[in-house]
Amino acid sequence: MNALKSYRIGDTTISKIPELLLTDFGPHVLFPQIEDGVLANHPGWAASGTINPETGNVILSVHTWLVKSPKYTILIDTGIGNDKHRPAIPVMDHLNEPYLDRLAAAGVEEPEAVDYVLITHLHADHVGWNTRWKQGRWIPTFPNACYVFSALEQSYCAGLAHADERVNAARAKANLGIPMRTPTRGVYEDSVEPIIEAGRAKLIDIDGSKIIDGISFYSTAGHSIDHASIVLESKGERAVFGGDVLHHPLEIYRPDLATMFCEFPDAALRSRRWLLEFAAESGIMYFSSHFPVTSAGRITRRNGEYIWEFE
């Protein structure tokens, strides 16, 4: 599995670093509220390569976006990671993937070369390669990088991990209601806490502010308590990394569909609608976290309906 084609946004190059394909989700599993026959009645909603024609299952990708500018080497989300104990998610349990080799093939020959790791949210398939197991403990995979993520989400996940008052405080501050689910147990302890203990974390408010040159975090809460979409600007061009606001192109046509993974479904729906409108109005390039094939493309609007096209 090799890195796919690269994209240019201004003077910045963006490349996909694949980790894993997920092929076992039926549409009714991923989208519990989907009606029977939707895909059969609307074949245009199933872009080529996003549905297995033999099984009818949706196809999802887990990957990282490598962003290289003249100033910085950046990773956006870090996938599942190797050796992680995930008994509740068998497909992610104790992986042994050549992720770092793929990263090297894309031009990052040593993990020390990464300047920033930007994280949309703290779920198991977005923070796993934050750390790796070495000499009996979890250490930062990218030891020179500044890991940037939500202060609110960190506090919430820390509270869940340690069963303390931070949970209720974070829920009150987020004001999203009672969650339908909580993040996978163990993820904070092995993939986030070691980053903080190593002094490599930069905890931020998700408010649209510019974090580093050309990079801003926008609030798209709902899938997680303080999920962020990351906007890159370079030489007058823009891209958005949507994290898990959208899991599959089907949601572009049916934004009312919530996935089984969304913690706060009503807020997730608001964020999907906002992001679809933002992408369609601006013409911005969209880089997804879980769409298969190239995983990148554009969202447009035609006759009142949003449309997806891979690049």
Structural summary, described in words:
This protein is an alpha+beta fold and 311 residues long. The protein has a single domain, classed as Metallo-beta-lactamase, Chain A (4-Layer Sandwich), CATH 3.60.15.10. It is built from 9 helices and 16 strands. The strands form 3 sheets. The protein has a 7-stranded mixed sheet with strand order 1-2-3-4-5-8-9. A 7-stranded mixed sheet has the order 10-11-12-13-14-15-16. It is globular, with a radius of gyration of 18 Å.
Give the full name of the CATH homologous superfamily: Ribonuclease Z/Hydroxyacylglutathione hydrolase-like
Arithmetic mean pLDDT: 96
Q: How many individual helices?
A: 9
Largest sheet: 7 strands, mixed
- Silhouette: globular
Q: What pattern of helices and strands is seen along the backbone?
A: EEHHEEHEHEEEHHHEEEEEHHEEE
Main β-sheet, spatial strand arrangement? 1-2-3-4-5-8-9
Précis, in short:
With 311 residues, the protein is of the alpha+beta class. The chain has helices at residues 27-30, 38-41, 99-105, 124-127, 151-162, 166-174, 187-197, 250-253, 265-282, and strands spanning 7-9, 12-25, 58-68, 73-76, 116-118, 131-134, 137-140, 146-150, 201-204, 210-212, 215-219, 228-234, 237-241, 285-287, 296-302, 305-310. The chain has one domain: 4-Layer Sandwich (Metallo-beta-lactamase, Chain A).
